[in-house]
Amino acid sequence: MAAKNKVGKKIEDVQYLKTDAFFYLFGKFENHVFEDVDTNVLFTGSGRAALRLILEFYRLNKILADKNSQILVPRWLCYSVLSSIQKFCMPALTMNNGVRGVFVYHQYGYPQKMEEISDFCKEKDLFIIEDCANVFESYYHDKRLGTVGDAAIFSFSKLFPSLLGGTLMTGNKDLFNFSQTRLLHCKTKISCRKLSINTYFDRFLYECFKNTFLSESVKNLLEKSYGIIDRAYLIRDISLRIVNEQIKNGMWEQRKKNYKLVLEYFSDQPEYFRGLEREEVIPYVVPLIDKEENLKRMADALLAHNVMTGIYHFDVNRNLLNPNFKKCLWIPVHQGINSENMERICEIIKKA
After folding, report:
1. I need a surface site. Which of 142, 174, 184, 296 has the fewest CB within 10 A?
2. For 7-18, what is each residue's pLDDT tens digit?
């Protein structure tokens, strides 16, 4: 039983974003995040704050005429993202004459078929927003995700124990100048700075007390905060300190090692991961495709060992314009799992 708990704790530590965040509140640091990206980068309070800036720009320029204008989105998109979109336009699941842009979700860090999507959008005169919430450094045909479309959003807290924090990336100079001006103006306003601090504090309280007798209270606090988080434009240094420290400590190397281990462990069952890139991708989680009854057994076995997982939907076509969602099992490969525990997770799945 102790061994089971140990495996679970190793996974849980990062999955639930447990971090000694307090120790990152102060001190100087050099920020090397995205310094190698050859496009415009702005750090924001969250991925949703970056999305809001992008949609504000398109509304201001009448590309999105009003809230009846539509943007094509994938199925199973997070409701909080849909909530932010609906403040400026309507999300659509099928292509129609009212669509003015597409929101391309690189699900679990695996790239969509951007050549097909880009050609279609160029023909229809549609803008492309890349949702890189599950991505930091993955590529499509040697091109880094986030630099293919007109703009991209990143969300640090999906991959790092950074509390919050995100990025807006764009090659559109007008969009960059608009967003940069908005952020600079926000830094001069007490109300903006206060909102940023409050959202971080709410998230910090949630991480500290979510497994205590105060769990319900901090959960409600976080949910309330998430209703306005897209207006909290400013990133706090604590997020960038944590992200820089994680990168310096080799988090990507560990994720790559874990991913390779999973692929090699199940090399005799390639149907589990059909179509997934072996190189140029650092996944958020690895989707295992199988019959639903088999997935259920695997998920139950992992949950019994305190491994955070579940059965979700993954677009095996990886094409927003022609999706094909199949049920999959999440296999965690994050930097909190060492090679020994990664092998044990694979053993649990195989025995199930």
Report:
1. 142
2. 443 334 434 445
